[in-house]
Amino acid sequence: MIEGADVLGQGVQHVLVVDGRVAALGADAADGAPERTQRMHGDGLVLLPGLVDLHTHLREPGREDAETVESGSRAAAAGGFTAVLAMANTDPVTDTAEVAERVHDLGRRAGYVDVHPVGAVSKGLAGEELAELGLMARSRARVRVFSDDGRCVQDARLMRRALEYVRSFDGVISQHSQDPSLAGPTACCHEGELSGRLGLPGWPAVAEETVVARDVMLARHTGSRVHVAHVSTAGSVEVIRWARAQGIDVTAEVTPHHLMLTEEHLAGYDPVYKVNPPLRPTEDAEALREALADGTIDAVATDHAPHVRQDKEHAFVDAAFGMLGLETALPVVSTLMVRTGRMSWSDVARVMSTAPARIARLGTQGHGIAVGAPANLTLVDPAREHTVDAALSQSLSRNNPWHGRELVGAVHLTMLRGRVTAREGLVWGAEEENE
Ligand SMILES: NC(=O)N[C@@H](CC(=O)O)C(=O)O
Ligand SMILES: [Zn+2]
Ligand SMILES: [Zn+2]
């Protein structure tokens, strides 16, 4: 029983949890509570539905030195998440039902969050032949989100066929929008005055925007669902806004780092800021904030991308792309969007829980806080000021661009089907296992 928390920032209520489900909600929720009900104080805390991350790299199988399903799941629980979509760019690639089931089962075994594997669009992410989309969808892993993330599905014919195929089981293609003929594999800095000055290979905004534009037209043509991963430019936002006004079934996510951080961070050539797509100018970040607040962008997704030291500690051009994000996502959104008055806590519940759950077709996870729904809950301390310490992360990796930053708002407790999975960053059971 959680007593006196501000549910969605819309009013103080009690929430009774029985057998992993929300059994009652409201001032008299305690009536009929079984004897020996455990009581938790929610005074001053905001209760949100468990957060859902549409875009997480867990690295297992293949790079268990950078992250495992278990370590990434712990980081997710510490960050307030109860479900994550695990990207397919593992080794082997998640392009078969077998690999998808393996990742799914590893998630079950770890038990901190629900791990939903994302299936690859193409075999081996090679962009040539469709992967086993139907078999992955019908597998025990129930895959609904497909992505070649890390690479763009460049071939329009393959993208069209993938969209047509997933329509039959209400799947969605999540696209890493990057035309490689405009932004090749070495492109690592937003193309503009800064990339010229720093002498870094440019990654122009138009390399993203042309793919977004093409894909929304393919979505319209096929009547299928396309999702734009890690939107990073104002031009992409304009295309998405237009497409939605036409009734095209396009959804989009933005990362905490593209919302808050800008290209100026690259001036010191610190590879911790190297990410795909690159950090953009302030005007782009501002357009992303506006689009998130007005609903043009549906969701915040972390793109948590752990890398070992040896892959990150290189000259900027040679370092791996990606940064950690699971444990800092909620504090960043709180600091940037809620403290400033641009979004309410119920907006946060939408962009970090119910909308991503709906996009991934997670069923019951998308119902928010309701009687009868699984007790997947996140208690947030909206006023807690803290300085991010990379050393305290549950992740196996340390490529954390937020280290040393002061943020306001923190996850107090995470609950998965009524079981506490994390409390103030400390993951349930972690003390013993860290001995
Ligand atoms: N975002 C990144 O910079 N890197 C991701 C791949 C991706 O999301 O494109 C990774 O797998 O490391
Ligand atoms: Zn990507
Ligand atoms: Zn990614």
UniProtKB/TrEMBL annotation:
Which CDD domains does the entry mention? Answer: DHOase_IIa
**What cellular component terms from Gene Ontology apply here?**
cytoplasm
Q: What is its EC number?
A: 3.5.2.3
Catalysis performed (reactions): (S)-dihydroorotate + H2O = N-carbamoyl-L-aspartate + H(+)
Q: How is the cofactor bound?
A: Binds 2 Zn(2+) ions per subunit.
Tell me the active site: D303
What InterPro entries does this protein map onto?
DHOase, DHOase/Allantoinase_Hydrolase, DHOase_cat, Dihydroorotase_CS, Metal-dep_hydrolase_composite, Metal_Hydrolase
Names of the cofactor(s): Zn(2+)
UniProt-annotated binding residues for Zn(2+) 2: D149, H176, H230
Query: Looking at the record's lineage, which domain of life comes first?
Result: Bacteria
Q: Which residues bind Zn(2+) 1?
A: H55, H57, D149, D303
Give the metabolic or biological pathway: Pyrimidine metabolism; UMP biosynthesis via de novo pathway; (S)-dihydroorotate from bicarbonate: step 3/3
Which EC main class describes this enzyme?
hydrolase
The Gene Ontology biological process terms listed for this entry are: 'de novo' UMP biosynthetic process; purine nucleobase catabolic process
Q: Which UniProt keywords apply?
A: Hydrolase, Metal-binding, Pyrimidine biosynthesis, Zinc
Q: Which residues form the Dihydroorotase catalytic domain?
A: 45-234
Q: Select a single GO molecular function from the record's annotations and give it.
A: zinc ion binding
Q: Where does substrate bind?
A: H57, L58, R59, N89, N276, H307, F321, G322
Function, as annotated: Catalyzes the reversible cyclization of carbamoyl aspartate to dihydroorotate.
Which NCBIfam families has this protein been placed in? PRK09357.1-1, pyrC_multi
Q: Which family does it belong to?
A: Belongs to the metallo-dependent hydrolases superfamily. DHOase family. Class I DHOase subfamily.
Which protein is depicted?
Dihydroorotase
